[in-house]
Sequence to fold (92 residues):
Amino acid sequence: MGGTTCPYCGKSALAWWSKFFYNPLSEGACRVCGEPFTLPWAPAMAAYIPFVLVVLVGFLMVDAYLWAQMLAAGFVASGVVHVVWVPLVKSG
Ligand SMILES: [Zn+2]
Fold:
């Protein structure tokens, strides 16, 4: 999982699932070297695009059940992008 690589020591700074709880406003500490990291704004915002697209598409659709399924899929897609693609960056 490249998205959990520490920007200081290059090791895995946190468990992939715990990255769900981080955003550009939060700060964490690498579990290996203890240095502080955060998430960069632009990629973190870009990760929300799949979810936002699904919400927008939902306004054009009449099938609420299908939309609910797409919403769940979009949420998962954004979560995967967030964890896998958004890098950790040095904080402070
Ligand atoms: Zn580290």
